[in-house]
Amino acid sequence: MSTPQEFLQEELEEPHSQHDSHPLNPDMAKVQQRTRMPSGSETLVLERDPQLEDVKFANGASSPIKPGQWGRAWEVNLFTYVGVLLLLTACPLLVLYFYIACDKYQCSLTTPLLEVYHGEATLHDLWLKAPAMTAKAWKVGAIWLMWQIFLYVGLPDVFHKIIPGYVGGVRPGARTPAGLVNDYNVNGLQAWAITHIVFFANAFYFHWFSPTIIFDNWGGLLWVANTMGYAVSIFAFVKAHYFPTCAADRKFSSNFVYDFMMGVEFNPRIGKWFDFKLFFNGRPGIVAWTLINLSAAFKQYELYGHVTNSMILVNVLQAMYVMDYFWNEHWYLHTIDICHDHFGWYLGWGDCVWLPWMYTLQGQYLVYNPVQLSTFHCLAMWGLGLGGYYIFRAVNRQKDLFRRTDGNCLIWGKPPKYLQCSYISSDGKRHQSKLLLSGWWGLARHFNYTGDLMGCLAYCMSCGFGHLLPYFYIVFMLILLIHRCLRDEERCRSKYGNQWDKYESLVPYRLLPGVF
């Protein structure tokens, strides 16, 4: 469950990492010195003690390397177990509650709870307001899933051949803990474009269905999506135990519930090209994101005879991020979802249910509460949203430039500074990485998240201040991204050891310089 393009500073690997049989242990470092590279880039080099050359330790750790030590946890404590049970129980109920609040209470989150508190209704009464399962919703959901699978597996990308600057087709992913580099069929932009063309053609030319079809069946589709999310999660769990894609990239804890939620297999696949992570994160949910918002806009027009400027704001700003995701889908192969997370309920159910229902709350809200913003408010939201997107894109572009040129570039007009690091994959080989210290990446370790949060705030504030519901998204994303900061840094500390501590001393802030 993520927003588009949440890139990691940690994933600054060289395009073709080199390794040898003698991993570098930074605890052995005796001298830190600055060295000028031919391009003028400045790097920090850790010098090895040759007398300890043959001692294999994890980077900076005080004990020998454990294969696959970076990734999800091996062991589960009581606090984690309780948290997992809470998420498994609360998240599906929360999505259902938000739907009921919108559909029955004009998007008020407090009214249904106050009714129960004052004895005006019971929890059973609230449950009776849940949406009904419908045959039409099952039909729509099944066609949608089959259509997206066909576009993903059955239609090779041609956009990269005809659109200048677009990178698609077969692309290599990041190296897994077992040392594998998988190929991915990057054709999301093509799938998104074809899907939207077919939707508009069927809705407005052939008139096979109404453009409000998604909104009109939103309640029934919630049951379909839950069924899909649980089915794929259970299948992935069983597959990991009995017919894994790569047994060396699995992780088991002693806790059945934790393994089900966080996943066992790192990159589950069916055949050569159907990758669970790439498909479920991008296709059922993110392709649908813009269609869900458009369906809400059409519903607003159907009900009120016009579309508010707030609805246009939400549609355009969120569409920018969706388009950005698919334009840069090859970059997604180096994000935390692909490089770190195993595939379990967290991604399976989250991508099928949480993302399409909770990330589109603003469009749903504006159907029930049409808000026409003042000119100043509208312009301010455009500025906040576009400014956040600019920062988000500029930060990621700097890292991509640095990675593609292997540091032989200019960032903010100067040769970049970086920290040269190494790490060990579970096959015992040493690989090289570079952690960028210049530009946006010198201001904060996750400045791309800062731009992302600015965009999230713009979505929410575009809905005015009448209810709390549309602001759930910014609260959730703030918690999610701060947690990702901490989780990423803990992983990097495990992976790089005291090399990461050195990096943190050079870039001390996470999101806002001088604040956090």
From TrEMBL:
GO terms for molecular function: 7-dehydrocholesterol reductase activity. Its EC number is 1.3.1.21. It is an enzyme of class 1 (oxidoreductase). Signal peptide: none annotated. Residues 1-40 are annotated as: Disordered. The chain crosses the membrane at residues 78-100, 189-209, 221-243. It comes from the Eukaryota. GO terms for biological process: brassinosteroid biosynthetic process; cholesterol biosynthetic process. PROSITE patterns: STEROL_REDUCT_2. Keywords: Cholesterol biosynthesis, Cholesterol metabolism, Endoplasmic reticulum, Lipid biosynthesis, Lipid metabolism, Membrane, NADP, Oxidoreductase, Steroid biosynthesis, Steroid metabolism, Sterol biosynthesis, Sterol metabolism, Transmembrane, Transmembrane helix. It is found in: Endoplasmic reticulum membrane. GO terms for cellular component: endoplasmic reticulum membrane. It catalyses: cholesterol + NADP(+) = 7-dehydrocholesterol + NADPH + H(+); 7-dehydrodesmosterol + NADPH + H(+) = desmosterol + NADP(+). It is a multi-pass membrane protein. Pathway: Steroid biosynthesis; cholesterol biosynthesis. Belongs to the ERG4/ERG24 family. This is 7-dehydrocholesterol reductase. It comes from Branchiostoma belcheri (Amphioxus). The lineage of its organism: Eukaryota, Metazoa, Chordata, Cephalochordata, Leptocardii. The gene is LOC109473755.
